[in-house]
Amino acid sequence: MNLTRVSQTPDHISLSWSGEGPVRILKDGKEVYSGNDTTFTDTGLEPGTTYSYLMKGEKTIKVQTATAVEREEKNEDIPLQELIVSTVVEDGKIAMAWEPIRGVEEYAIYRNDEYAGTVTEPGFHDTNIEMNSAYVYGIKGVRPLELGDEEAKKKPSPLAKVIDVLKVKKSEDDMLVETFLFFKDIGRPADTLKEQPGQNHDNHVLRYTTFLEDEWVENPNVLSQMRFFIGDGRTFDPEADRYRTRAEVKIKGQNVKLSRSVGASEGYTREKELVERDHASDEGIVVKSVQTDEEKVSFLLDHSVGNPLMPSPDIVYEVHAAFYKNGLIEISGEHDEAPHHEIYLKSGDGEWKPLHRSESRGLERLAPPTANRFWRYSNIV
After folding, report:
1. Per-residue pLDDT averaged across 296-317, rounded?
2. Structural domains of the chain in order of their starting residue, each with its CATH number
3. Would you state the pLDDT for residue 200?
4. Which of 87, 306, 334, 378 could form a disulfide linkage to 314, CB 3.0–4.6 angstroms apart?
5. Do 176 and 165 contact (CB within 8 A), yes or no?
């Protein structure tokens, strides 16, 4: 038995396969098909929702994919949120395919944080796996900054013309290059192919922290009495108590609760003498658009916090998170390329799991029109 096609609309998913003999298909541990056909269509589904199917015939295959979303319903701020990613797991093989990201010409593939190769088409398969080893795949792509909506791009903006004239190199360190990074947490393939779903947690903690790696940060305003600002003097650490901002969202069943904190800002003279100390308001950190249905609970986390000691661009990010009743987790976001960003998840009594960590590429990256970073994390159940 070989899977030959996966297709989606906003309300159905179709699977096609080749091979002889009866096939059973289970969704969330419940049988939804049994027979000798070579196609199956699941109907009445929710748009923009991920579903998993376990196919059992001559061999066992796990398929995870998502229903489509109409263009006008998509979240333009987080383009990876509704990106359809299909994952297939079978004995000795993991395959992934995703919708092409406009303007991205190639994708770097990482397996357990190690570079595994580059592809020019939106997909790959890995046959060098061990069924009882855990795998997390990362896919990275970059493109020159795009402005405005899809229709407006038919007539390039003045900035778009400048970008074209400059012939921007497609490096994520370039101020005018957008980076897309998404992770698929497979876990152990042997567990993924089990007929009975594993244990699911209904309580989670999502922790998002921004911080300054350096101990001291020079003020770009040379006329200011405050020549330096205090930094946080650390690297990535989910438990660190020094940071610019921290948002923590607790999910318990269908209840969502936000706690927020802002670190002190301190300005110093050239001789490192304190001039002023203040806290920015935390009112720019909010959870909104909480939605619950039969499949999941989802919400948006918005963040916009500035420097209370001087006029400067805010630290801005947005996160969309969805926690499914069957254990599936999908979290996507976008943020400025400064300062450092770190996002962790704790489920039940487990340890902090890093979802996304991004180093600062300079505080000038806070100011528009510099490009942002887009990211996404999801698991498979």
Report:
1. 94
2. 1-73 (2.60.40.10), 92-195 (2.60.40), 203-363 (no CATH)
3. 74
4. 306
5. no
